[in-house]
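[step 3/7] inverse_fold.run input=structure_tokens len=329
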């Protein structure tokens, strides 16, 4: 019989609710405890989603001796501090993306996980979705030949609020860290670490990037064209182009999708691969975390520490080029 894991959620915000809904679908996950800065909010969250315990502080949640794993769902600016707190107490962590604000913080978190020998993973949920795993399989089987380029976007119209986590530099605001990370992770998955990064952005009133374009180039003549914006809805789709054909991931490509299309250049034929579309899509990463913990792993082979570090190094360079600085830099 599989172990049942006592899950904790740290930070009772919007994504925490979605994650909890998916967690409830997994037979070996127990909705155990939630920690919030406010006891009232913790109790209300626990009642809504069916958690056994509610704590009015993050420290109290992490001090519960029966906690098996914690999902950190605070704004970007809290990820490093809250992860370090959990790791210090020996609690395995899945932390929302981006893993932190900058490379220095990510390195600190990885060092702590190594030192304490405690599991740590960035919640790069897209990497665990069935369609992305299928695409990796197709690419490995040479179905589209050698990958030459990646094109992906992610944009939506956000209501301007200088205090919100999307626009406030103190919370790590801007399109890049919130949604630009998705096109970047797709490029990194299929083309690796870029040799050259070129970025342009429009900074808004709060001096964070509200619209950002990133071109990644690679020594072997490969390229990625990536776009993220808070200033309007975009198609949110993606293409992976190879020497023999291309793969199209329809909108919204970073979520569970109904299908992916493979176009073959030689025959001009399109093949459609239907995809399961269960739940919101967070259950796959959550299940993977439990499997890793059961296997005694400290990191995920899919969303590895190196993968997170490489992603953050690229984002640091993009921010340097476009002039976005946070107080914690
Ligand atoms: N994977 C995905 O699909 C996805 C989607 C959306 C967001 N995210 C990530 O999840 C994280 C949270 O996003 P969200 O949309 O859930 O944000 P949110 O609704 O604002 O929730 C964040 C929670 O963090 C806690 N918090 C701690 N310090 C805070 C501070 N200084 N200001 C505001 N809240 C603070 C609050 O919980 P308490 O008051 O209970 O302590 C708050 O409810 C972000 O890093 C984001 O990138 C991921």
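[step 3/7] decode complete -> sequence:
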């Amino acid at each position: 019989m599989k172990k049942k894991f006592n899950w904790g959620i740290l930070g009772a915000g919007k994504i925490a609710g979605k994650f909890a809904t998916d967690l409830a679908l997994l037979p070996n996950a127990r909705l155990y405890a939630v920690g919030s800065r406010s006891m009232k909010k913790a109790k209300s969250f626990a009642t809504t989603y069916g958690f056994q315990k509610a704590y009015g502080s993050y420290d109290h949640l992490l001090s519960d001796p029966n906690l098996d794993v914690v999902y950190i769902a605070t704004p970007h600016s809290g990820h490093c501090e809250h992860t370090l707190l959990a790791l210090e107490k020996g609690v395995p962590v899945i932390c929302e993306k981006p893993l932190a604000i900058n490379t220095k913080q990510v390195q600190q978190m990885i060092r702590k996980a190594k030192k304490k020998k405690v599991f740590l993973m960035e919640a790069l949920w897209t990497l665990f979705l069935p369609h992305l795993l299928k695409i990796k399989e197709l690419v490995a089987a040479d179905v589209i030949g050698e990958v030459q380029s990646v094109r992906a976007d992610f944009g939506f119209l956000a209501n301007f609020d200088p205090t919100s986590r999307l626009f406030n530099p103190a919370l790590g605001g801007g399109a890049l860290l919130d949604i630009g990370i998705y096109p970047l992770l797709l490029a990194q998955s299929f083309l690796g670490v870029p040799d050259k990064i070129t970025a342009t952005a429009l900074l808004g009133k709060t001096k964070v990037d509200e619209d950002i374009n990133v071109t990644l180039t690679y020594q072997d003549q490969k390229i990625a064209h990536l776009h993220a914006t808070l200033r309007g809805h975009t198609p949110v789709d993606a293409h992976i182009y190879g020497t023999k054909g291309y793969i199209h991931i329809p909108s919204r490509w970073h979520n569970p999708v109904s299908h992916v299309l493979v176009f073959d250049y030689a025959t001009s034929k399109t093949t459609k691969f239907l995809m399961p579309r269960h739940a919101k899509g967070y259950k796959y990463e959550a299940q993977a975390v439990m499997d890793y913990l059961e296997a005694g792993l400290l990191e995920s082979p899919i969303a590895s520490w190196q993968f997170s570090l490489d992603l953050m190094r690229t984002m640091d360079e993009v921010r340097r080029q476009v002039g976005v600085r946070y107080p914690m830099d």
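[step 4/7] annotate
Residues 305-322 form the longest helix (18 residues).
The pocket of NAP is lined by residues 11-16, 36-38, 41, 73-76, 78, 96-97, 123, 125, 165, 171, 178 (CB under 6 Å).
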